[in-house]
Specification:
Blueprint: E1 2-7, E2 10-15, E3 18-23, E4 47-50, E5 56-57, E6 70-73, E7 79-80, E8 93-96, E9 102-103, E10 116-118, E11 125-126, E12 139-141, E13 148-149, E14 171-172, E15 185-187, E16 194-195, E17 208-211, E18 217-218, E19 234-236, E20 246-248, E21 260-262, E22 267-270, E23 276-279
Parallel strand pairs: 3-4, 4-6, 5-7, 6-8, 7-9, 10-12, 11-13, 13-14, 14-16, 15-17, 16-18, 17-19, 20-23
Antiparallel strand pairs: 1-2, 2-3, 21-22, 22-23
Length: 281
């Protein structure tokens, strides 16, 4: 058995491949040249038990614990630090407590065995690259408390087939769903006003999408390389119907073969007939 401190009032103990964190308060943050005290045996850790009075999970605390299969985060934890569980490739079960307010950047990136995640309704923002590269992730529950989906949170989640965006979300960040090659459809709620650059780029199985009237800004290449997206299945609010009359698959207008000029909405307008195109390629 090995043990030691990992915070002012926190202790750790490793016994029979189970790492237990106990005590009260915040966990120390770790980074390059300041590794967690269990680093020497991190590749043997199969389970982490976090005590009910632990307040935070430190930066890079359990990064690259390659045999870790299960984690339960208690309600006392309010913050999961950056890259806390990054590259835990065998992590299959993750239970996030109801008290978590902040999930740091890259917190669960490259956890390639995770199949589903339920985010508690105490979280208001899904940050940068949080679940990037979780290639087995098929479903995720985003609560109504979330107001913003940040940059790159689901990049490369190649098994994600569908996602429900709650009506509380106002912004979908840049590259949010890049390379989600199994995503077939998505409905954007009327609360969303902005879709960031390359938000759905490379979603090669996406066949339909609904863009509400509330969206006032669509970033460049928001739907680039969505090779299965059918223009007839892009559902647009009636007031915006004329704004997105087609998909830009060619360098000229498909109606009159006229030249196209770039627009601020992430599309192009035909200078000859006035048709406006959503830029997909």
């Amino acid at each position: 058995m090995q043990s030691g401190s990992c915070g002012e009032n926190l202790r750790w103990k490793l016994d029979d491949e189970v790492l237990t964190i106990s005590g009260t308060g915040e966990m120390e943050n770790y980074f390059y040249k300041h590794n967690p005290p269990w680093r020497a045996c991190m590749r043997s850790i199969q389970r982490v038990v976090i005590g009910k009075n632990v307040a935070t999970i430190g930066t890079q605390a359990f990064q690259c614990c390659s045999k870790l299969t299960r984690v339960t985060i208690p309600d006392s934890v309010t913050l999961i630090g950056e890259s806390a569980f990054n590259t835990c490739k065998n992590l299959r079960r993750l239970d996030i407590g109801k008290g978590v307010e902040t999930i740091g950047e890259f917190a669960f990136s490259d956890c390639t065995s995770l199949t589903s995640i339920k985010i508690p309704d105490s979280v208001t923002e899904i940050g940068e690259c949080t679940f990037r590269g979780c290639t087995s992730l098929t479903s995720i529950e985003i609560p109504g408390s979330v107001t913003e989906i940040g940059e790159c949170p689901f990049v490369g989640c190649t098994s994600l087939t569908s996602i429900e965006i709650p009506s509380s979300v106002t912004k979908i960040g840049e590259r949010a769903f890049v390379g989600c090659t199994s995503l077939t459809s998505i409905e954007i709620p009327s609360s969303v006003t902005k879709i960031g650059k390359s938000a759905f780029s490379g979603c090669t199985s996406l066949t339909s999408i609904e863009i509400p009237d509330s969206v006032t800004e669509i970033g460049e290449r928001a739907f680039s390389d969505c090779t299965s997206l059918d223009p007839a299945k892009i559902r647009i609010s009636p007031r915006k119907q004329q704004v997105f009359t087609g998909l830009l698959k060619k360098g000229y207008c498909e109606k009159c073969a006229g030249p196209l000029e770039k627009r601020q909405v992430g599309g192009y307008v035909c200078s000859r007939c006035g048709a406006i195109y959503l830029m997909l390629y």
